[in-house]
Amino acid sequence: MKDKEVVVGFFGLSHLGVVNAISLATKSVKTIGIDSNTELIKSLREKKWPIQEPEIDEQYVKAQGFITFTDELGAIST
pTM surpassing 0.85? Predict the structure, then answer.
């Protein structure tokens, strides 16, 4: 059996979803944040956070390469 890459998806990017997705991605785990709100996804991609959280910008920099935000609900399917 071939090893598969672990991908973790967070459905719903409220405060907890955003923080947990970024936090896990800083641990070098491929992470996908998914929400049906297209405007929210656009804001997140532009680093316009809908929340107030200490060091979120610094954590997002560490997460680069491991995190994706999308409104495509099927993005996590195998």
Answer: yes
